[in-house]
Amino acid sequence: MFLTMSMSFFMYYEVVLCECLCFFKLFPWIHVMHLSIEWGLLFDSLTVSMILLVSIVSCLVHLYSIEYMKDDPYISCFMSYLSLFTFCMLLLVTADNFLQMFVG
Question: Which H/E stretch holds residue 7?
Fold first, then answer.
C-alpha cells in the first residue's frame, strides 16, 4: 500500500500539475455486432485526485488493521478482503466506461 500511495503522489504530480492526460486501451472486452466495449483506464485530474484519496485512506486503514488484528487467527483472510476492496475502489475510479465502473 505504501508503493501504491507513493505512485499516486507521482501520478498526481504528472497529471494535475504537469497537465498530462493519460488514457490506456488495454484489450477488447465485449464485441457483439456493432457494439464494441474495450477495457481501458482513464487518468484525468479528477481520477488522479480520487486515486490519491483512496490510496491514502486505504494505506491508513491497512496500517491500523495490522495492529488491531494482530492476535486474530483470520488476519490473512481479512487483509485479503481489504486488499480486494481497495482494488475494486481503484478499478471503479479509473474506469473509462460505465460497464467497467459497474464491475468496480
Answer: helix 2-12
Whether the pTM exceeds 0.85: the reply is no
**Three cell numbers, residue 86:** 481497495
Q: What is the tally of structural domains in the chain? A: 1
- CB atoms inside a 10 Å sphere around CB 35: 7
Closest to 36 measured CA to CA, from 101, 93, 92, 99: 99
Range of the domain at 32: 2-103
Rounded Cα–Cα distance for residues 5 and 2 (Å): 5
Which are the contacts of 92, defined by CB distance < 8 A and separation ≥ 6?
A: 101, 104
Condensed to tens digits (0 to 9), the pLDDT of residues 1-53 reads: 899 899 999 989 988 888 888 888 888 888 888 888 888 888 888 899 999 99
